[in-house]
Structures are given as C-alpha cells and as structure tokens.
Amino acid sequence: MSACCYQCGGTDGALIPVGIVGQDNSAGGTIRACPACRKVNRLVPMADWKYIGDGRPQYYPAKGAAR
Q1: Which domain of life is it from (predicted)?
Q2: 62 located within any domain
Q3: Model confidence, pTM
Q4: What is the largest CA-CA distance in the chain?
Q5: Is 32 helix (H, G, I), strand (E, B) or coil?
C-alpha cells in the first residue's frame, strides 16, 4: 500500500509526515499530507514540531490570530 495524503487522498507530490495515528495498542502509523493540503490547512510538518503531544496534527496559527 502506498502512502497517500490524509486530507485529499492524493499520492502526488512530496508527502510529509504531519501526525501519528494509533499510538495505543494498535499497529499505528504516520499521517502524511501533500504540499497543497499542508498549505491550505496550515499543517506543521513533524520535523518542525516543538513538542510531540498526543501525535495529532499541529497547525500554524492563522494569519492575524493572537498568539
């Protein structure tokens, strides 16, 4: 099975890890997103995460949002 974008299901482009699924007792896996979905949804690549948390995707703040 090839990797696909968890947002659009596409396999084109450089899919980048953006999250982890099934960390409990399941086999688990990596959530990946294509460049277009990463930009539109403001997804932070796992390589840029400041903390792991629970593995869910992390997002860049919306433009103009209070920090």
Answers
A1: Bacteria
A2: no
A3: 0.76
A4: 41
A5: strand
